Amino acid sequence: MSQQEMPADDETEEAEVDADGNVIVKDDADKKPKVHPYITWYKKFGLSLKMGCIDDSANKDKLQKLLRFKSSKTEGEDEFVSLQEYVDRMKEWQKEIYVFPGESIKQLSESSFMDAFNDRDVEVLYLTDSIDEYFIGNVREFNGVKFRDITKEGVKFSDEDEDLAKRRNKVYADKFSPLTKYLKKLYGADVSRVSISKRLGRAPAIVSSSEWGNSANMDRIMRAQAFAHGVAPGENMMPTGILELNPRHPFVIKLLESIPDDGETDPPQSVKDNAWILLDMATMSGGFPIRDPKKFAARMTRVLKSGLGVESLSLAEEIDPPAEEDLPDEPEFEMPDGFNMEDLNLDDLDMN
């Protein structure tokens, strides 16, 4: 068959032959799955599409259909999900598109914010582009389904009996009311509110943002932009988040038992340190920086001192090592010029 008669096939690949002219058969398992051309294109121009959704409000609905995202259910660097695909596989009770802005997929996938969603097998879109939060804040919805940032307050799940959830939340709120009041008084302006969480999984607590405030990721971006312009935001520029407590966690239950019943007696310093460390953990889990690193180091020092049974932090006396006898210097041997050890043949030596 001539070359002109051969059928055109886009999938045809050049065959490899060995020295004898035999065709080398490759195992299909060794072949990498081909990346869709649109994904290759999207990796280069996806940011432009998101910018178009912001700038061109008349065509944002069409442009949103072209967007692709990483999610908690995508694997590998070439697997993405469209907004329509996400909506099509939402849970029956799910009413919103859950999004999670952050710095990296690894960081997001390991966050405490994901516990409740993983437990319910609910997909979450990962937003790792710096423009993503501007995009979400501008378009707000896709085909009538609103976006919901899981790092902010107001996240609700409708997979359980609504009446039971209300009664359970009321019991938790009443039971932990002494603790929430005490912690708000202790933390002062470092938190805007202390509440019992309805969406925490295994974490004892986490700091979230108000529904209309900046997320921890947006705060990180804004602070980086400020530093880039030579402006160092002061402590008063630090965001004030909402401390959400997990009423089922042993740390929270023990802390409730540790505070005085009358609400007036000052608890021991160890209880205060534990309460502050709980906030520090929740702050870092929520993606926020520690507000006062010096105070953080001081209370961690007290905790280590107590845990290790150290009575005093005074430094030990400097050691006084015994004097060592002076040893003679090793003799130095100079090799004759032109002598090379590689030229020495031991077979020529008479060892007898």
Radius of gyration: 32 Å
Main sheet overview:
6 strands, mixed
Mean pLDDT score = 84
- 3D shape: flat
Describe the structure.
By secondary structure, the chain is an alpha/beta fold. Helix content is 36%, strand content 11%. The strands form three sheets. The protein has a six-stranded mixed sheet, sandwiched between helices. It is flat and about 95 Å long. Residues 1-12 have low confidence and may be disordered.
List keywords for this structure.
alpha/beta, disordered N terminus, single chain, 352 residues, 11% strand, flat, three-stranded mixed β-sheet
Summarize the structure.
With 352 residues, the chain is an alpha/beta fold.
Layout of strands and helices, then pairs:
Elements (H helix, E strand, L loop, with lengths): L15 E2 L5 E2 L12 H19 L4 H5 L3 E4 L9 E2 H6 L8 E5 L3 H5 L5 H5 L5 E3 L4 H8 L1 E2 L2 E5 L12 H14 L1 H11 L3 E6 L8 E4 L7 H13 L12 E5 L4 H9 L10 H17 L7 H16 L44
Parallel strand pairs: 5-6, 5-8, 9-11
Antiparallel strand pairs: 1-2, 3-4, 3-6, 7-8, 10-11
Helix pairs in contact: 1-6, 11-12
